[in-house]
Amino acid sequence: MSKYVYSFGGGTAEGDGTMKDSLGGKGAGLASMCRAGVPVPGGFTIITDVCNVFFDNDKKVPKEVDEQIWKALDQLEALMGKKLGDAADPLLLSVRSGAKFSMPGMMNTILNLGLNDKTTKGLSDKTGNPRFAYDCYRRFIQMFGEVAFGVEMEHFDHAFDTLKAKKKYKLDTEMTADDLKVIVEEFKKIFKKHAKRDFPQDAREQLLLSRNAVFMSWWAPKASYYRKMEKISDRLGTACNIQAMVFGNMGDTSATGVGFTRDPGSGEKVFYGEFLVNAQGEDVVAGIRTPSPISELKDWNADVYNQLRDITSKLELSYKDMQDFEFTVQEGVLWMLQTRNGKRTGPAAVRVAVDMVTEGLIDEKTAVMRVAPAQLDQLLHPVFDTASLKSLTKLATGIDASPGAAVGRLAFTSEDAVEMSAKSPVILIRKETTPDDIHGMDAAKGILTAVGGKSSHAAVVARGMGVPCVVGCGAISINERGKVATVKTADKTVTIKEGDWVSIDGATGGVYLGQAATKDPDPNSPVFAKFMKMADVFRGKFGVRANADIPRDAKAARAFGAEGIGLCRTEHMFFAEDRLPHVQAMILTDNVKDRTKALAKLLPMQRKDFAGLFEAMNGFPVVIRTLDPPLHEFVPKREELMVDLAKLPTADIKTKKEMLSRYKNFAPDVKSLKTVLPQLLARVEQLHEFNPMLGHRGCRLGITYPEITEMQARAIFEAVVQVAKKGKTVIPEVMIPLIGGVEELENQKKIVKAIAEEVLGKAGLKKQKYMIGTMIEIPRAALTADRVATEAEFFSFGTNDLTQTTMGLSRDDYTKFSKEYEEKKIFKNDPFGVIDREGVGKLIKLAVDLGRSTNPELEIGICGEHGGDPSSVEFCYQVGMDYVSCSPYRVPIARLAAAQAAIAKSEGSAEANRTA
Amino acid sequence: MSKYVYSFGGGTAEGDGTMKDSLGGKGAGLASMCRAGVPVPGGFTIITDVCNVFFDNDKKVPKEVDEQIWKALDQLEALMGKKLGDAADPLLLSVRSGAKFSMPGMMNTILNLGLNDKTTKGLSDKTGNPRFAYDCYRRFIQMFGEVAFGVEMEHFDHAFDTLKAKKKYKLDTEMTADDLKVIVEEFKKIFKKHAKRDFPQDAREQLLLSRNAVFMSWWAPKASYYRKMEKISDRLGTACNIQAMVFGNMGDTSATGVGFTRDPGSGEKVFYGEFLVNAQGEDVVAGIRTPSPISELKDWNADVYNQLRDITSKLELSYKDMQDFEFTVQEGVLWMLQTRNGKRTGPAAVRVAVDMVTEGLIDEKTAVMRVAPAQLDQLLHPVFDTASLKSLTKLATGIDASPGAAVGRLAFTSEDAVEMSAKSPVILIRKETTPDDIHGMDAAKGILTAVGGKSSHAAVVARGMGVPCVVGCGAISINERGKVATVKTADKTVTIKEGDWVSIDGATGGVYLGQAATKDPDPNSPVFAKFMKMADVFRGKFGVRANADIPRDAKAARAFGAEGIGLCRTEHMFFAEDRLPHVQAMILTDNVKDRTKALAKLLPMQRKDFAGLFEAMNGFPVVIRTLDPPLHEFVPKREELMVDLAKLPTADIKTKKEMLSRYKNFAPDVKSLKTVLPQLLARVEQLHEFNPMLGHRGCRLGITYPEITEMQARAIFEAVVQVAKKGKTVIPEVMIPLIGGVEELENQKKIVKAIAEEVLGKAGLKKQKYMIGTMIEIPRAALTADRVATEAEFFSFGTNDLTQTTMGLSRDDYTKFSKEYEEKKIFKNDPFGVIDREGVGKLIKLAVDLGRSTNPELEIGICGEHGGDPSSVEFCYQVGMDYVSCSPYRVPIARLAAAQAAIAKSEGSAEANRTA
Fold it and tell me: Which reaction is catalysed here (chains A, B) (predicted)?
């Protein structure tokens, strides 16, 4: 005869942990715990095959199954010393589904099975708590009615609410035992009316009906749909787990609690948790009574305490990970209800991993896989104190663009931010930021914008600076000139103005009114260093560089372990106050002579910047990109000029002075505005583009204005000479942006090479090595990468732009529909956050293979924002890149993600192996 | 002994036409003509091997070569009855290079060799024209000095100009024979000074030096560079052709002329040409004397005339193509100087091809290959009368965007264009056009814009309408509000204003001030129909459809032979005056209810449009694209609103009324502007995008506003029902634009399908067939085409957008640097005119292959503007598409290009086989 039912409990089990196919995940886990000697409330599992038989057999099960069930029940009653349906001291049961793969919340559960008119009275007497007993009973009728007979929840709710209203109660907890007795009678009537039979008083009948209901839920629409989504076979079926219920509220020798084998906040190896005497599990969570720290359990019942410590230590040893457990003490007897690997904060994850290696519990590879790279963010940025945050009004949720908690007073312009930052911390709030705002962003503790996504200017720059940032916060309407903003929250419209305190959480996108308390992390702790060292061993030769534009960021990058600079955006240096006038002069002229003159003024400044980067990166490569953005980014905005010009004829002196401050680089005085503004607008109109992203930028600038590339090349190589002569090792890599084919690279390479040879030759440094390469950020460049690689010494994938062009998606505009796209499952992830492997990834793979086919020596990396995203780092590793480059504050994350990718290479996907 | 020198002349030749390797192209041609009995001035060819020997042998040639040369010269002297260096009647020679492949203008030529102090006098006496003789001599000294001794041209020019200035002559022709004698003496001095030897008086020495100079020019920098570009081997070497010179100015028995075997303008089979008695070839071209029609040659010398007719007829028979020939009669003897396949106009090309088939001269395949598809344009559009055009001031040259000649008065706004067109033809001049301008473009005879390229809105729409159009005319600064424009020409600034007459040539990009005369073509001539019928036989199943949005265009498309509509842009119907308010209401509302209400008003209008298309295309497929452009195209411009809002507080009543006319769909009266404008601006700001090309458009609209797709699907299928019930055959294909992956198509397909089933079901037309497919216009869609094809029943490549995204190039902005890119050879062609095969083409090929891999039944076409470009049509044929679709007026061009592609498939590239 086949075995359909497997018992467990009393320190043993018929099944074991390997039998997930027949016992399901939950059943196998219970068997495993019992075999490990953990005191689990006893029970039995009806195997998954029965579920299939049930459906194949017109929703009936063979007689042998029922026979095996009654036999297992007999055993269970003996083990628990209680009998199902015993009016004096009833055994109560839970009936739960449990398939091979977890399908959380998709199928049914019935609790408190065994209650009827008589046993409820027995439970009431036994616990001395009639309110509890009748509340259990009415809940059971409702759950059973709904699950086993399809009685709609609302009928029960209506009856309950009617009585509550009649009694004028506000809370469910105001219901007395007598009220609940009335409800029980009502519920039985409702059951009868809709189920068309009396509520079954026979506990064994209850059991068989519940078992069938659990099987039926395998084909509930939501469960079918979930299986289809997750590609789980319909033929697996679900097991059915029947288990004795235990109660921590059976008097003063009973208790209930939760705990961790280590501190989930810090990772420290301390016994951590809390408990309540004479209480149910939900009381601990509900917060009505204050639980006691678990250390006090010792005073209440030393035996139980010692047993619990002993069991949980063994569990940790057995599962080789920190355990999160629930327990109940019923009349002096300890029962473990659940144990699982515990969720933990980033710092705890790192500490637990490192400690467990020291303790010999896990090896280094396991330790490295135990920490989700994103968790490291918490070690690198301040975080909010959760309690403190709860007391504030939440204004809105935007897009989490740069992690960390920031508190400050609102500033509406970059100028204000700089000024106000002298006196107090500042949050810069803008509709969007532009390169003009760099100084304000630099002065601010946090940045908040109304538009833009994870790759918007604000997001990219903030991450580079390590400044917390929330973008795309569409609920906020900003009046920048009025220095005021309004926010529609769920229940009211809030106005916020300059100087108001706000708190923003760059890790969640939360924006709060008021000052929350923050906690500072310690990124330089020895345990963190030890962990990263372990990770780096697995990472091997795969490099991690940082995107940094100025020496300060380069130094930060080195501190975080960056092995070079993967992207220096030269234009970020163009916005400094002493440079902008020269940049503007260069742009606004229409002849080469004046442009060359303006460039000559910029040259020494650029040279100084580059020298600073080379010094900071002594011995590591520095990739410098030539000018990239469209020129109109450096001049006043077209529409602002149009409006000012329209207003000028009727403007009063104050308005004119305001205007003058905007155009101070162009107009000497108020009077001159009349002639300057139209000229300026005319030139700005010439520079105007319908789609600047696809316009006159990148190498297209260097090709039409070769003198710009010449100046930049000269600045780079003069800086090389300067630093090399100090005895430092300089490894410059000059990167040409936005090429579409080899012809553009050839053009620019020729210019750079000529200057390099000239400058190095003159300095007697002919042997100084340097590379000239290109960004791959336009599909055409990727598609023709075999030809490009004949001229390029390196490729660096600019995945921001490559994603924009490959998907035809503007990173500045897509937030208008991206949420809907994510809801409708058109985007699996934000494509600017995680590389779209199917489309963009395919193109990257193609380009890597084409490039290496004609130039096997080609160095290949990525410098788009994806370089700091763990899943994307894994992808870059998989397609065979040499390195990733990301913002300095994400360097540790990338190092860890790369290590995990290396480990996963032989063991499947890194993501699947992570615990958190 | 090897043979190095091959003689020709006197009705025979040692070489023949097959010996291009050794005789070079020119030498082989001369041999071939001689063998055909054509009276060619005699001469000899020194073979290409000698050139290699010359360079291998320190720039010397073996003695045998010289010996063979002198022998050949003896023969030549006998043949021509003159001797080299004979003071009384000198033989003069030309010395020309001639490699296997034509390298036009890359190598050297020396004419009039044999002149010296004595022979010049002889020539002078013989011709009775000392001015001619001394002019020949001074030219020879100069040419020989420059080519053989590297004496710089400027030294000779300086001496010539000095004398000219001294004599106060304006023209070179004012120089007298005596002046030229002075010049000859001067030139000899210059020669001596720079060549460091006397000018050689010995004609044989002149010959050897000239031969060496011709060989030397094989390695001239421009020739080397040309070979590198054209991938011609350096080892081929050049032959050297030495030929007797003949003169048509040796008195009244001499003459010179040019002609064609058929009329190159009309193709008519008439002997066509002109001649001058006692003249040189250049006199015919220079236009100082008026030549006589070639028919009069008969009266002058009947023998010569008959001989010429006879020879040229034979030449046409031999070359099987219309010949363009040059001849000279020297002292009563006819010499043919050149014959080649003649260039011809489009109408002539068609007529000659058709006639030659009728005459049995060529087969149909050859006839089809003889006409360049682009030549058909001249048969489909009016052209300017060239003489008439010459009398006008040329204002500027823009980009030739839609062919045809147009003459009209300038209108600066679409409203003005409509109004003015009632009284006179109109040219609409705009900075750029937008969909708002459709009615103005429709009313205009021609369109002229200052910005944009071949794929700009103006260009695309104009081609669709068949209206001549010039775009990107940057030299014109337009003040639209002032209704005036200024143009900087080479020498002055011209102001043009409303009502001024201009003429624009859409085939050349020329813009002229004034009224030029135009000639109308006859596209319905029997000869054209016959030609297209021949072409269609070769085209086979490969289809040609048209892009058409309204029934009128659909009818035109049918008349041009379109086999269906490949693209109907539904949004073009949205701009009609009766619809725009509903479209705007739909866009400006923030709730589904109002949007649905506005859409309900549009439904019957769209249904009517579609029904019209289906009727016109009875039995042919109609591809209808759902809404594509960003919504802000339908509402007032943001910056215009900002300016108006800024002006409003201080505006006078006239300005306010002007504003009201702009916002009449939103504001009922002047007073309401104060409240309406800020609201309108707020919504327009929400719709504003930084890169609209990559923004919220295409299927992204239908996904976020499913009710728009629903309305359009309903209009389509209700129209299907309406037309099908009339007994017509309707073949609807619904096309979803701008998808990036299969998920978007799934979403929209579901909506369309549900409506289709409902509407067709209700009408009892369940068997009515229809297809749902998608545009491939985003790289990601191409990269994932295998998955897309599982849902798509057809693909249509939108190569405009696919080029924009694949190349990262905005078609609205790229003209700022495209000219520079073409000059620097970064763009081989305008990528919006000709498919970029290397990049975009690779992606198309990939998508075709991926798509067919999962869906072999997939119908594949192209509906981008490239569908009407011959090279692109060839590409589409090669990658295996089923059809191309283009603007109606390009349908014949596409039909011919497709036929040529089909022919070329087994015979190499179509382009290489074309004559014109």
Answer: pyruvate + phosphate + ATP = phosphoenolpyruvate + AMP + diphosphate + H(+)
